[in-house]
Design a protein that fits this description.
By secondary structure, the protein is of the alpha/beta class. It is built from eleven helices and ten strands. It has helices at residues 44-48, 74-77, 97-107, 113-123, 139-151, 169-184, 196-202, 220-223, 227-233, 239-247, 256-264, and strands spanning 4-14, 19-29, 33-37, 59-64, 67-68, 81-84, 157-161, 188-192, 205-210, 213-219. The strands form two sheets. The chain has a six-stranded mixed sheet with strand order 6-7-8-3-9-10. The longest helix has 16 residues, at 169-184.
C-alpha cells in the first residue's frame, strides 16, 4: 500500500474577509507526480503554500508526512517539502553556485555538506559552475539551480510553481527529463503549470482548482478525456494526445518515448 505523504481535510483559507480556498480535501502518496491546474487566481499557489507550512488553514487541517501543519513551525514542515518559486531570481541569493547549494544542508544541520553539494551539482550538470555567480546564469540554468538547491537537503516532496516561464525549448526539454528522473528515483513532485504538454508528459495525477474549490482529482489520462472540465479550465488537449488519437493507437500513449518507439517499429 502506498504511503500518504500529504493529506488535506476540508481546507478553508482566507487572507481577509474573502475565502481563497473552500472546503478542499485531497490526498497525495509518496512517489506520485501531481499536476495542480486552474486559472490564474484560482488558489493554486495558496494551496501548495499549505504543503510547506508557509500558510496555515483557517479551517480544516493539512497533514504532511503525518504532521499537522497547525502544530508545527514552517521551518519544521519545510524539511519535508521543498518549494521552487515561479521566478528563480526571487529564490537565489548566494554569491556562488556552491554557496547556494550548500545553504539548505547547512540550515537543516545536515552532515557532509560537501558530498551533498557535489552529488547534486553532478546530477544537474553544475559541477563546472560551482565557483560562478548564479546571477550570471541564463534563466534555464537559474531554474535548474533553484531546483538543485532544494534537492540538496533531500526533501520528500518538491513543489514547482510554473517552472517553464521564460525558458527556451532546449531548457524545457532538459527540465522535463530531469523531473522525470527525480520522480523515478522516488521523489514526490507537485507541478503547478498551465503547460498541458508538460503535464501530460510528466504527471500521473491531476488536481484541478476553480474559484477556490476542487473541481477534479484523478489520473492524468482521465483528466484529459474530460472535455467539460477542460472547457471550464480553458485548457487545450495536449498535442501528444491529439497525435495519439489521430494515429488511432490501440492504446493511449502519453509518454513521448513510447510514441517515438512506435514510429521506429
Amino acid at each position: 500500500m502506498d504511503k500518504e505523504i500529504i493529506k488535506v481535510e476540508n481546507l478553508w483559507f482566507r487572507y481577509d474577509s474573502s475565502w481563497v480556498l473552500k472546503d478542499i480535501s485531497l490526498s497525495i502518496d509518496e512517489g506520485e507526480f501531481v499536476g495542480i491546474v486552474g486559472p490564474t487566481g484560482s488558489g493554486k499557489t495558496t494551496l501548495v503554500k499549505h504543503f510547506n507550512g508557509l500558510l496555515k488553514p483557517t479551517k480544516g487541517r493539512v497533514l504532511i508526512n503525518g504532521y499537522d501543519t497547525r502544530k508545527h513551525k514552517a521551518s519544521f514542515i519545510s524539511r519535508f517539502v521543498g518549494y521552487v518559486s515561479q521566478n528563480p531570481d526571487h529564490q537565489i541569493f548566494s554569491q556562488t553556485v556552491y554557496e547556494e547549494l550548500a545553504f539548505g544542508p547547512k540550515n537543516f544541520g545536515i552532515k557532509d555538506v560537501e558530498r551533498r553539494v557535489r552529488e547534486v551539482a553532478k546530477l544537474f550538470k553544475l559541477t563546472g559552475k560551482l565557483n560562478s555567480s548564479p546571477f550570471s546564469m541564463s534563466m534555464g540554468e537559474k531554474e535548474l539551480l533553484a531546483i538543485a538547491s532544494i534537492l540538496s537537503f533531500d526533501p520528500k516532496v518538491i513543489i514547482l510553481d510554473e517552472p517553464t516561464i521564460g525558458q527556451d525549448f532546449v531548457s524545457y526539454l532538459e527540465l522535463v527529463k530531469l523531473l522525470k528522473k527525480l520522480n523515478q528515483r522516488g521523489k514526490t513532485i507537485i507541478l503547478i503549470s498551465h503547460n498541458v504538454d508538460m503535464l501530460a508528459e510528466c504527471t500521473n495525477k491531476i488536481v484541478a482548482i476553480l474559484n477556490g474549490r476542487k473541481l477534479f482529482e484523478g489520473s492524468t489520462d482521465v483528466f484529459f478525456e474530460k472535455k467539460s472540465v477542460l472547457k471550464k479550465l480553458e485548457l487545450p488537449v495536449p498535442h501528444k494526445m491529439k497525435l495519439v488519437k489521430t494515429l488511432r493507437f490501440k492504446e493511449r500513449l502519453l509518454d513521448l518515448d513510447e510514441i517515438l518507439e512506435w514510429f521506429r517499429e
